[in-house]
Write a structure and sequence with these properties.
- The protein is an alpha+beta fold.
- The protein has a single domain (about 1-25, about 40-85, about 95-315, about 390-485), classed as Ribosomal Protein S5, domain 2.
- It has helices at about 105-115, 190-200, 225-240, 245-260, 265-275, 315-335, 350-355, 360-385, 390-405, 410-420, 450-465, and strands spanning about 1-5, 35-40, 120-125, 140-155, 160-165, 170-175, 180-185, 205-215, 280-285, 290-295, 300-305, 430, 440-445, 470-475, 485.
- The longest helix is centred in the last third of the chain and has 24 residues, at about 360-385.
- It is globular, with a radius of gyration of 21 Å.
- The relative contact order is 0.17.
Length: about 475
């Protein structure tokens, strides 16, 4: 995998210091170069450095339920104290200011970490407005990290045990050095992620004791990938292992595929590990190339439908298998000699030529793949050009194709996504993830974001009164990815 990071230029045309990055770059770009190339195979993940994220002060929308309200003061939030760990080469130790996106439970995590001298990781959620349901087929995807996510505080232990307390669900899990559960208290679901991380990073000499809390319910913003990446990073750090972005992302996917039972791809962890504030991440799942590019100032409004979901209990896996079957059928029609299991392995022009020869639902799945990949290419061009209207159109077209061709999305999620899309000043919107519950996200200008959040939430509550009490809205800007807070 190759990562290309295009630095944002200031008003003078000079590049600001790269305070987001925790590693020394192989070489500084020469004046006039547009992009910095990072080797994902040899570099320590840049997201684990301390970084000041301008969007972290945005906080939860006033539309959020009381239990999810941020606790930060009106003024600048107090910084975390400096790390007590031995400074590693390239790892920054300056304080990181975190804003009002923290819930009271997450503040408890930070308070405990400060009192005990523990390490703290922040693993953000992500929003994908264009590029849905194609990563597992070798397509192209885009996304942004959000200023909300998972806070994990941990301290390495010498006994190889993993002991984790989840304040969000009031659960505990303990695994021995052989990754066998010793204690499971209200942790039957999320302990699978911990067990998967433990097995993938075995054998190990050290474990960790930790406490974790998320800020949002699950539902299309990749809380599972954020959780997996946090556990993997903590366990690797405890054992002195430096994992690259690619290694972290592949391990997170393997956890979901093998241990949780969700047939997902690289989209979610790749965005979370590579994200940078004010930038859009693009991944070509066929080549592994990652591009992180600056663009115009935007905001993301996400509205929660009040309906939780877990992908393993939905029709998500059926859709991925239908895509694979469509690839096999097209391969035979084209006369491809090698065995094909992903639509991205076939020439796009030949797929378009033979799509109509496939029976339903396979022709629909193939059509979504081809058109969504083309939309990603349009969206990345629009982002570079600052054309937010075109980017928004791509997001709304992605929603339409997800409904018509990928045939996903519950009725409530479709209603929510259309309400958000049609709210004045929204540039484009779609439901998040598989659309079986959770969030819908829309793109807009920052100046319009809070009003849009209030208007869309109110309209949804009127349209779907049965879930009105659980629904809420948040506002974010494109934010930094997985990183160390302490």
């Amino acid at each position: 995998m190759r990562a290309v990071v295009s630095p944002r230029k200031g008003a003078t045309g000079e590049r600001p210091p790269r305070k987001w990055c925790s590693i020394p770059h192989p070489a500084e770009p020469q004046e006039g170069d547009r992009s910095t190339r990072l080797s994902c195979r040899s570099s320590r993940a840049p997201h684990l450095g301390r970084a000041t994220d301008p969007s972290l002060g945005w906080g939860l929308s006033s539309c959020a339920p009381a239990g999810l309200k941020g606790t930060g003061p009106d003024g600048p939030p107090a910084p975390c104290g400096p790390s007590k760990r031995t400074k590693q080469p390239g790892l920054r130790n300056e304080p990181n200011r975190i804003g009002r996106m923290l819930t009271p439970l997450q503040q408890q995590v930070l308070d405990r970490a400060a009192a005990d001298g523990w390490q703290v990781l922040f693993s953000p959620y992500r929003a994908c407005l264009v590029g849905a349901h194609v990563d597992h087929q070798g397509g192209k995807v885009t996304g942004f990290a959000l200023s909300y996510g998972i806070v994990l505080a941990y301290s390495p232990t010498d006994d190889g045990m993993i002991r984790l307390e989840d304040l969000t669900v009031t659960g505990r899990a303990s695994l021995n050095h052989a990754n066998e559960p010793v204690e499971l208290e209200n942790a039957q679901d999320w302990s699978k992620f911990v067990m998967g991380a433990g097995k993938l990073l075995s054998p190990r000499k050290r474990g960790f004791e930790g406490v974790v809390a998320g800020s949002l319910p699950s539902g299309g913003l990749s809380s599972s990938a954020a959780f997996s990446l946090a556990i993997l990073s903590a366990l690797a750090d405890a054992n002195g292992r430096a994992l690259t972005n690619l290694e972290l992302s592949r391990a997170a996917v393997e956890i979901e595929n093998r241990f949780v039972g969700v047939n997902c791809g690289l989209l979610d962890p790749t965005i979370i590990t590579n994200a940078k504030a004010g930038h859009m991440v693009t991944l070509d799942c066929a080549t592994g190339d990652v591009t992180v590019e600056p663009g115009p100032e935007v905001a993301i409004v996400a509205v929660y439908s009040g309906i939780p979901r877990a992908l393993v209990s939905t029709g998500f896996n059926n859709r991925t298998e239908e895509c694979r079957q469509a690839a096999r059928m097209l391969s035979k029609l084209i006369g491809h000699q090698e065995e094909v299991t992903r639509l991205g392995e076939l020439p796009r022009d030949l797929v378009l030529r033979h799509i109509d020869a496939l029976p339903e639902p396979y022709c629909l799945r193939a059509r979504h793949f081809v058109t969504e990949t083309e939309r990603v290419e349009r969206a990345t061009s629009a982002w570079r050009a600052g054309d937010l209207e075109e980017l928004g159109r791509c997001a709304s077209e992605s929603l339409n194709s997800s409904i018509a061709n990928y045939e996903t999305g519950s009725e409530e999620q479709r209603v929510l996504a259309r309400i958000l899309r049609d709210t004045p000043a929204v540039l484009g919107a779609r439901f998040c993830g598989g659309g079986f519950g959770g969030f819908a996200a829309g793109l807009c200008l920052p100046s319009d974001a809070q009003r849009i959040a209030s208007d869309a939430l109110g309209a949804y509550r009127r349209a779907v009164p049965g879930h009105a009490h659980q629904a809420f809205a948040i506002v974010s800007q494109p934010s930094d990815g997985l990183r160390r807070l302490r």
